[in-house]
Design goal:
The protein is mainly alpha-helical. The protein is built from twelve helices and two strands; from the N terminus they run αααααααααααβαβ.
Length: 307
Amino acid sequence: MKLLMDSFWRAAVYCLYPRVIGLSFLPLVLIVALSWLLGYFYWDLAVTWVRTWLDASSWLEVVWRWLEGIGLPQLKTVVAPLLVIFSVTPLVVAASLVAVSLLMTPALTRLVADRRFPGLERKRGGSFLFSLWWTVLSLMLALGALLLTLPMWLVPPLAMVLPACIWGWLTYRVMAFDVLAEFASAQERQTLMARHRMSLLGMGVFTGLMGAAPSLVWASGALFAAAFVILVPIAIWIYTLVFAFSSLWFAHFVLLALHQLRSEPPLDDLAGSMPLAPTSPHSSARFGNSEFKPVHDVTDVQARAAD
């Protein structure tokens, strides 16, 4: 817990550094450009398709009549854009995570390492291509889990828990790997991810819940069409800043854990420093007249003499 809290407040302080704030705008520029491109070519088509699907749904006619009855027929025109936005939001989050992972996490990890662990050896246990493959694979698994659990979102508690757990798992997998890729060997990475799995998963879930907050800003862009161009980039930037905080949190946590792991005595040294136990008369008869013998050499098992 001490390691968890220490890395948390250090990550929060690092988020105030001008260099970190400046880096957070780089993925924003790329994601905004991609979102604008997709919106320019496919927004009208997507909204029209969703609106056609809503009009063709017979079970929604009751809802439309009820909205007209209470004097809110204009809400019908908002439903289709909202559905498109809510459908695209997970993809934007995933794109933000990939962008931060590829563009920001290595730079932020080096920032933490240079300031806190200048003498930490870089063993480069993961290449760029392997890191990219790991990120894409984890992303595909997370999106598959989202699709499989989509019907469970109709249950109110699960609608809050399941996405947070899935995004938390994705964040933990991607961030922990990318931080360790340059500094740890493959064996050290596997050891640390196994030893601190629950703490890393908890960090991922917590940052996943933090990433859910900008959805309110994102959805407001549909309700206030005039501010759509402003609110949506703000929401994406907040997503990116949350992921930057995640990178820093994981960097502080994992690099300190790696430093502690390398400070531990090797297993051979531990085995060599095992305490010696005095021998019993029975063992002395078999091993000689030595006063002390290693613990693992003491045994009372003796082969039976042949009849």
